[in-house]
Amino acid sequence: MTEEIRYKKDGFDLEAGSSRRDYPEDDDDGDGPFDIFRTKSAPVHRLRRWRQAALVLNASRRFRYTLDLKKEQERRQLIAKIRTHAQVIRAAVLFQEAVKGLPGAVTSTLPLTPAQNSDFGISSEELVAISKEHDLSVLQQNGGVKGLAEKVKSNQENGISGDETDIINRKKAFGSNTYPRKKGRSFWSFVWDACRDTTLIILMVAATASLVLGIKTEGIKEGWYDGGSIALAVIIVIVFTACLISITDGSHSYEMILVIRGGRRTKISIFEIVVGDVLPLKIGDQVPADGLVISGHSLSVDESSMTGESKIVHKDPVRSPFLMSGCKIADGYGTMLVTSVGINTEWGLLMASISEDNGEETPLQVRLNGVATFIGMVGLGVALVVLIVLVARFFTGHTKDPDGTVQFTAGKTKVGDAIDGFVKIFTVAVTIVVVAVPEGLPLAVTLTLAYSMRKMMADKALVRRLSACETMGSATTICSDKTGTLTLNEMTVVEVSACGKKIDPPDNKSLLPSKVFSLLIEGIAQNTTGSVFVPEGGGAPELSGSPTEKAILQWGVNLGMDFLSVRLDSVIIHAFPFNSEKKRGGVALKVSDSEVHVHWKGAAEIVLACCTSYIDTDDHVVPLDEEKLSSYKKAIEDMAVESLRCVAIAYRPYDAKSVPSVAAELENWQLPESDLILLAIVGIKDPCRPGVKDAVQLCTNAGVKVRMVTGDNLQTAKAIALECGILSSGTDATEPNIIEGKIFRTLTESQRLDIADKISVMGRSSPNDKLLLVQALRKRGHVVAVTGDGTNDAPALHEADIGLAMGIQGTEVAKESSDIIILDDNFSSVVKVVRWGRSVYANIQKFIQFQLTVNVAALIINVVAAVSVGNVPLNAVQLLWVNLIMDTLGALALATEPPTDHLMRRAPVGRREPLITNIMWRNLLIQASYQVTVLLILNFRGRDILNLQNDDKDHAFRVNNTLIFNAFVFCQVFNEFNARKPDEVNVFKGVTKNRLFMGIIGLEVVLQVIIIFFLGKFATTVRLSWKLWLVSIALGIISWPLAAIGKLIPVPEKPIAEFFTKKIRRERNSDDG
């Protein structure tokens, strides 16, 4: 038995709420087809299984927003074909190259076609051929990367000029970096979707039959009302449904990317990239267009998205310069020249072919389909009983008109009248099915998710995976990064320790000896992925790079560094890009024919451990003795206590003769990292974000534990955690509450499981440590949300229940592995996502309570009336109107309730908690019992109560039934207010702020008035007196105090369903025994 199963059996499964309950051991293979609790990796056979189990009467509504398994399979086949196409072309080119080397082979080269655009020295077709065929010989014919850059009028260092005319010309000559998107669906296509509802089709057939028979027996002037009214009601339902599903159709987003234009680094939309652009690339970036490597250091690319093979390919400007759009930078950094864009690339062709949005089922959708199926079965059964009873009563002569006339007498009633009577009975039965089958349940999920997604975008959260919205509401813990998420990511060097002393102020050049200064400037300018651009007309230098890089570059500029001239003084011969595992990065610089400088920069205590000496104030290299080492360690601790990020800068000279001269050996050369000479330790200030402490406290109150997982020094992490409120006091700052990543990773799996719950801060953690923590927490039963921004965070983001990538600092790899992108990198936005997640679940529960109340009341009223007197008080048209209120308008009103602070004072909702809670059952049964009692009394004793005994029997019957219909509708209208707050007495709190809710309530009331006053012929109603209108409203209003009193009745904590499931289990176990 695995650790996970054992912990679940021991009652630690927090997904199931705080109570200890027994659930199937295997999430993916539970007892029922609707037991899908995690769709991140749900197998296809599970998804097929619940579709086959669902009662599908309205497929367009039920499955419109779920994954189309057939289309998904076709999409994968198409991707495979395009990949094969790309591989065949490359194989052919390789074969040609191999043939050239055979004796007697005739060498040939691809003809160079003349440029189609005189502005450029090469045509679009040639560039596409070079990119797609990866033919080095053709590239060399064009002068290599440098020659090609000149032909497309670009500079390898400064890029294109970037003026508007130049951009337009390039787009005309080589195309734009866009691909055709699928056109948005028209309103009529949504109408057609809604028309394909099985129940509505049956009703239309019944309406047609009723229309034909009515016109035949009563003439066209009077006979079309019955059939025409049903047809009109069906059309209204179809139009409303079409309107609703059209407003929830998806939207698109785009990425921003860094380019070099006119020597300046600037961010533009990925769609604005043109041929000739020079792009800086770093680990985690996605290649946005086809191109060639201009320069690169340890540059490796993951081409699996195009080739299907998860093989990392090394790239360099000479032997392997070709970059394919859509691939990821796996390691290193460099620059590229764009040669093909848009549909001229394999990736663009792929995206154009599969640019159709596919839905995705969420666990809640699947469970609601289960609920809808169960209720639908009950509704079908009830409708069948009603049909049999009414038909039996009709053909045995027990059904009478209001005036007492028997409707059917064997041998006397005309065939047409008999068929007409049967059609009316059949229509009522079908309409009961329409009301009983709650197709609005899955629609309500879609509505609330679509509404939440749009609102979350305004709250700086972009949802990539629909189910993440609802899963976030179940989150029990958030593992957050420190830098940029809990802090502002606005870094400044505020403290420097060099030459064995503190440099105060840190940018005072005169306090640094000349040798230390020149080495520091050299290391800062060369050992970086950032850059400094000085505008020609003067002005402040423009810095680019990560916040840490920019802080150190700004310090260098303040010291008097001339970035460009320093970079020209030496040549980078090899680089070790910053690595989150090793926490450092380095470069080897050739400063003369015989001398090489190796510069390192990284986590202070890690780089310091590699140092054996330092440079003193007299510019002498002095051994780093114990006393000096302790003083530097003390300086690091002091900086960390002040919440500063500590970075050490060191170097060592190296003999140029010892550097590998062969390119292949140089690629695999390990930069020397021992016997370093310490140059400086810098303390970088990154203040906490305003409001982050309140956000952490809000999470704590909501039962969500916030944990900080950072690569920073443990002391720095501790100081920030105390400032943010993650640690309440210094006494909490002891192991295992705070722990180093290296200690956590050395523990056994069972030890990690034991302490995972206690960890609040993890310092000096690697991405793998974060992954181990996420795995341990999930095995403890937590629903885990994780923030991440680096490429190496991808496994943890994927493993977590909800992966939250950072929109500003996050790499493309991190974003692709995430479920939600936090656009402003702010922890407060993460908390807002939790609020919206809880709101999704709460809104669905509100709608379920409202809908089931209507279902139960309508079914019981019609069944009891049909069985006892042979007539139903609510006819087909009236039930269709109630269905419209219940399914479509009800879903729209209740699914768009905004989140409240009350939601953040509850414990997280377990994803396996019953959808219908005991509180909901109480509210539902009270309201349904009240409605059924009042309306059945009106049905049987209405004429006496209303003093209609002396009226014409037919008129009295119509008045009574109209009052029942009117009162029933107003009961639903007022009960919608009760459904807003299932567990609060004050149901009106914040109601005026929800304009959509108030608008829908107003619309329902106005339409009801119109039906009673002006559409009597269609709805079989009569105009009511003002007194009966007041009676209808009063009967509806009573539901308010009734709901308030009902909420004072206590309910057991244990779900009602468990009493039955445990009893069934006991019976099964006794049978097995």
Automatic annotation (TrEMBL):
Under the heading SMART domains, the entry gives:
Cation_ATPase_N
GO molecular function terms attached to this record: ATP binding; ATP hydrolysis activity; calmodulin binding; metal ion binding; P-type calcium transporter activity
GO cellular component annotations of the record: endomembrane system; plasma membrane
Q: Alphabetically list the UniProt keywords.
A: ATP-binding, Calcium, Calcium transport, Calmodulin-binding, Ion transport, Magnesium, Membrane, Metal-binding, Nucleotide-binding, Translocase, Transmembrane, Transmembrane helix, Transport
**What membrane topology does the annotation report for this chain?**
Multi-pass membrane protein
Composition bias type Basic and acidic residues, residue spans: 1-23
Lineage: superkingdom = Eukaryota
Cation-transporting P-type ATPase N-terminal domain sequence ranges: 132-215
Biological role: Catalyzes the hydrolysis of ATP coupled with the transport of calcium.
For this protein, what is the EC number?
7.2.2.10
In Swiss-Prot or TrEMBL terms, this protein is called: Calcium-transporting ATPase
What Pfam families is this protein classified in? CaATP_NAI, Cation_ATPase, Cation_ATPase_C, Cation_ATPase_N, E1-E2_ATPase
Primary location group: membrane
Q: Where is this region: Disordered?
A: 1-33
UniProt enzyme class? translocase
Describe the family membership recorded for this protein in Swiss-Prot or TrEMBL: Belongs to the cation transport ATPase (P-type) (TC 3.A.3) family. Type IIB subfamily.
Q: Which residues cross the membrane?
A: 190-215, 227-247, 371-395, 425-451, 852-870, 996-1016, 1028-1049
Subcellular localization, as worded in the UniProt entry: Endomembrane system; Membrane
Its source organism is Salvia splendens (Scarlet sage)
